[in-house]
Amino acid sequence: MKKDILSLLDLEVDDFTHLFQRAIQLKKRFNQGISDRPLIGKSLGLIFDKKSTRTRVSFETAMIQLGGTPIYMSTQDTQISRNEPAEDTARVLSRYIDALAMRTFDHSLVEKFAKASTIPVINALTDSFHPCQILSDIMTVIEVKGGYAGKKIVWVGDGNNVANSWVNAAAVLDLNLVVATPEGYGIPDYVKNSSAARCSSKGANKIVFTHDPAEAVKDADVVYTDVWASMGQEEEQSKREAAFKGFQVNRELLSKAKPDVMVLHCLPAHRGEEISEEILEAPGAVFWDQAENKRHMHKAILETLILKTRY
User: Is 288 exposed, middle or buried (0-12, 13-18, 19+ CB in 10 A)?
Assistant: First the structure.
């Protein structure tokens, strides 16, 4: 039986725990010079519609370091660009490769691929969700804070795909999550509803939604932000800059959080916009550890899904 990761609602608590533990273990072994190569002879396809630095390179290097081979495919280089049905491409690729990571706009495309594929399909970012990003982010919280239980995690900014995945994670893991967005730029109802349904089976829903960033970050352990205009929204830049006034993560805003607050950003960052230069360059900043952890988490994901170590 194959397993896909299209959103974090596809995972159970035990799945999260396994991936966190394995990613941290693989990182430790890598830093000790130990080579783990369980995926020799295996291949990973990467179909990317959107530009990428961290996600693409971390998936490629993860596969190489595990002994496998990544195969990068721009959609424009495939027959998808000539209107071959996604289902047909998925069936064929299932005969060639061992897993597929997709980075695209419309989330329904990865759903079509997953339904038609006999291999694991991984969402490497859609307009709706970015699940692998949050897996590596929570891994970083565990490393720095010793765990995520009882920690107040605050999202400040746009209700985008990364924020949506934080809401998904909070539903499964029962996180203490506060989401602060400007009016009109909040989390979509379909994300709230699906996450709330998942929360109802887990206990009290601790997710709080607000339009007040200053109130949101009070006593925060972790503050997270992202760009105000995501890929495909560039024409909204000036409009969003006006709407997001007061939502910059800077020293003044963070003064309301705990003194040892941890700041996260999935990058790339627009310095002086959603986050100030001094916060990005602050001593002890973990943004670069956060980015590195994508590679180690992707190793854990690929090993688990391709070798079916849990499914």
Answer: exposed
Q: What's the CA gap between 7 and 256, in Å, rounded?
A: 32
Number of Cβ within a 10 Å radius of residue 284 = 8
pTM of the model: 0.96
| CA 217 – CA 188 distance, rounded (Å) | 22
Instruction: Kindly list the structural domains of the chain, giving each domain's residue range(s) and its CATH number in brackets, ordered by start.
Output: 8-129+293-307 (3.40.50.1370), 133-290 (3.40.50.1370)
| Phi and psi, residue 275, nearest 5° | -145, 140
**Rounded to whole angstroms, how far apart are CA atoms 26 and 38?**
12
Report the relative pairing of strands 69-74 and 152-156 from DSSP bridges: unpaired
Q: What is the pLDDT of residues 179-231, one digit of tens each?
A: 999 999 999 999 999 999 888 555 556 899 999 999 999 999 999 999 998 77
Name the pLDDT band for 61 (thresholds 50, 70, 90). very high
∠ at Cα 46 (134, 159), nearest 5°? 30
Tokens linked to 116: 């038609």
Tokens representing 93? 């690729």
* Per-residue model confidence (pLDDT) at position 202: 52
